[in-house]
Amino acid sequence: MTSANTGTDRTPKIVGAVWGLLVLNTLGSAGAVTIVPLPRSLIQMVTMGSLAAAFALALLANPRVRLRASSYVFLLTLLLVPSLISSVDQGAGFGALFRCGRLALFVATLWLLSRWWDGGTTFVRHHIRMYFAVLGSVAAGLVVSPGAALPDLYGGRLVGALWPLTPPQIGQYAAVITGLTVLLLLGRRTDGRSAAVVVVPSLGLLALTHTRTATLGLIVALVLAITSLVLTSAAARRVFSWGVLCSAVAAVGFSSALQAWFLRGQSQENFASLTGRAKVWHALLAAPRTTSQHLFGTGLGDKSFGGLPIDNSWLAVYNEQGVTGIALVAAIVVVLGGVALLRPPSLSRACAIFLISYCAIASYTEAGLGDASPYLLHLAVAASLLAVPAEAEAAAAAPEPPRRHVPRWARTTEVT
To answer: d(Cα 221, Cα 354) in Å, to the nearest integer?
Structure first.
């Protein structure tokens, strides 16, 4: 049990199980070749079954369907409209309608969980625990079969050998829980030993993935989050100062090694084209579209174009949900970012800034902001951190008690 201001004493344990099932649902069904071959149909059955179980448990925990107002979940609900319109109007088939149903169930589960969004770090802790467990499976696969975990197919980059996870996925999970754990340490919500147990192996796995987006996102987002605490936290000021010093030393002393790590053996031309992503982006933007496709997209799909991954959240949303979807996703990021900037400095605000910044940076080379994905879970945690506590909300909404009228003759304190 933690202190009352974290909200964990008011959140049933079943909520943590629901969050874990949502994490499992967003792991995906495509990735590396595992040690024990897992049929994709079995993986999809597990991931979709986890979403159905998450909704059922959330409903069990919140049987009266008590919801809290949330602009984030409201905008996600609106995102269902262009998703459904495009999937039906464009004749995208059963797969697109199935993905719409999945997104609807995902959003409904978030609505049920919103009851416990109170500005505390409860969901941050759930987030760290669940993704640390996922990284534990990655580390176990590396120990059991290093060859399968570092295959030549991915250029020797770390993949999931027990569960099919790609290097960008592993890098994303490692970066997010590293940043959140560092912030909890600065906010004195965890001790150094517990933080080291999470941060040290996570950074090791991140380095083995050679994921540039996750590394850059972690650095930039963590700098922004720590900067938001500089005025109110001496620990944040010390970390910021040491971080600047260490960065300067690393840039001077290890520039060649850092450059080699970022290039990953690629040519300058391939690096400049973002490993071929730019070609897919140009082809997608140049493809002819009808007015309906421009407004609402072509229906929810596998985030690919011409058989190649889009790897850009904004272009993936444009392709599947049109400019309407882009407007709604942009509104999500802007609203969450605006609310975070208006909040007074606090640990919750810093964690929210970290998550929002990371998702914004990663959206350039990763897809996921327009469909059920880890990125939407990251932003859901940010929304929970920015929520006003229920007690404060009720106190603000309660009318002031009527002032008792006191006669003029009784207002004097003099006794005669």
So the answer is: 5
